[in-house]
Amino acid sequence: MAVPGANQLRVSVVAADHEVWSGEASMVVARTVEGQIGILPGHEPLLAILAQGEVRVTLNGGESIRAQADDGFLSVENNTVTIVARQAELV
After folding, report:
1. What CA–CA distance (Å, rounded) separates 48 from 23?
2. What DSSP string runs through 16-70?
3. Averaged in consecutive runs of 10 residues, what is the pLDDT profile of the chain (91 residues)?
4. Do residues 6 and 78 make contact, with C-beta atoms less than 8 angstroms apart?
5. What angle do CA 82, 88, 91 make, to 5 degrees?
6. pTM (predicted TM-score)
7. Residues 19, 82: contact at Cβ < 8 Å?
């Protein structure tokens, strides 16, 4: 997978048994066990445990994709955000 440009994120939201959504975005907001976190391009590498709740992906045009995610983790590295959840679906 190619590394996206410095002003965008490559995002994948994956459930245990299927990919829920993937694409380019300008921001990701998710709920972790330590609270809500926002990810913008250039974010430092991160690994966090997801809490049950909404993941909001803001696309480059300003539209949002929302998914409900239950348990799992969020990984950020080189402008790539991977969200892996036990269960996840678009809402």
Report:
1. 21
2. SSSEEEEEEESEEEEEETTEEEEE-TTPPPEEEEEPSEEEEEE-TTS-EEEEEEE
3. 69 96 97 96 97 96 95 96 96 93
4. no
5. 110
6. 0.90
7. no
